[in-house]
Structure prediction request, 603 residues.
Amino acid sequence: MSDIINILPDSVANQIAAGEVVDRPASAVKELLENALDAGATAIQLIVKDAGRTLIQVIDNGCGMSDADARLCFERHATSKIRRADDLFAIHTMGFRGEALASIAAVAQVELKSRQQESELGTRIVIEGSDVKEQSPCNCPTGTSISVKNLFFNIPARRNFLKKDSIEMSHIEEIFRRVALPNHDIAFSLHHNGRLLYDLKGGNLAQRIAGIFGSGFSERLYNIQESTEPVKLFGYVGKSEYAKRTRGEQYLFVNGRFIKHPVFSTAIERAYSELIPERTYPSYFVLLQVDPSRLDVNIHPTKTEVRFLDENIIFSILRAATKKALGQYSLATELEFDPSTEIDFSPAPKGHIAQQPTVTFNPNYNPFRGGGTPRGDYSKRSEFEHFFDSSTSPADDCTVERLPLEEEPVQEPATVFTATPIGYQNRYIVTTLKSGIVVIDQQRAHERILYERLLARSGAATAAQQLLFPVNVRFNAADSEMLCELMPELSRIGFIISPLGQNNFVVSATPADIGDNGLQELLEQTIDDYRNSMMQKFSDRDKSICISIARQMAVKGGTVLKAEEMQRIIGDLFSCQAPNISPSGRRTMVIIGEEELGEKFKL
Prediction:
């Protein structure tokens, strides 16, 4: 039998390696930015065209490379950081495997220009699909400029699997943020198709967060800081009232490297126990400093998964530090201190004798008796006991969130209801049909009602409700670009939003159900939800946006509803085209028929 095992050519082996390291344009961006950091750059430019399909260029002012290094850096396993296996547990740099540039060059057309400070001329190298086409001296500034053109030009199947530009660009921006946040002392800029998206100056972490997420974002954060033997941590955690339904603004770094660590994420989120609703997630930007010998970053090709020797200890420290920040700063912001009431710590005059304080009280005081008379009957006790009168509804004496009542007439449901609805646990609405009992989830039902109402009004002349006072909103560069992309869909359901420049917008009209309350948070969450729906191949923009807005505007579980509000939900729900399920596909009601109910009482 003839031999069947062959040694793969280097070009094929590099393409296979590229499948692990470079699976989309954002992967190439990550590797190039990390190389620029390792070169000691203080200013890094990222230039992208067509979401990375046509061009990815990174320009840095780092140390540059010699002629020999510029050529060797494209060879597999060529690295300046590793000499022996033990070095893997003393990693202080971002890249170390020596696979990135070789993998990128195997699937793209690459041009490199690099010069060291002491050299008069730099080196220019052109590579296509691992083949070196040209190497020559050139005139260029100190540092390195590397251009990746026509990514996956020689692997059409891989190129065809790329998503549309908006999705691929959102991945690139996410990588950019993950690199720029921990390296806040370095200047970064990002251009896409000639448009400047980010221009970040070097500074502290708070300034970097404000530069990426907007100047007002810092008002949503508390400072967190702790220094112990196994870990030093600092950064910011979000205020509980700004928790979101997505995990988009959660950033955890170790030694300057972004990581995904479910255990540590859980540690932070557990600190918010009983502070935020279920299935909502806080924002955080936390940087950890750990001895490199106490962790292993070499367990995944993208190096985002890291193992810690002191995982349990760090978990406890991280949770405690987050709880401390939430307790300390939230209390400080709620209390207002009068300088005149501050404690005076000045020493007492010489010879001063402190007097024992005295306490006076009326031993005959009766809180259930008016007039303060020492004795008498308890005829006025009824004034106190009437608060417990069962005929008084708790909802009548409390200020609660009310379901917005519509001015338009309610269409009566086709099903005949035989009893006034009642609320159960402020979450379910219980009523009866001729054939049994129906239990309705008030939040899911209202989501279905609002969703169909928004869709039905899409494009209608009456969909928009002019605001008496237009509202200004501001977003980070990524969200601003996404908002501009969603403008046609938002205008069809009733929003009138105009750009003002510098990521600022003005909202002059909204759908009739929304109004002007909390527009900033509503639009931010809508953008986040839409971005996540794109990742899940949700292709219908109109439906995605309506689902997000309906979910945010729906009456929440735990809200006390009046009987007429419950009746309105029931009537509107049974007028929907699909009353049985919420827009996200969950059941809105349970009907217990007469036969099923009878079975429960059988012996």
User: Anything to note?
Assistant: The chain has a mean pLDDT of 80. The longest helix spans residues 311-334.
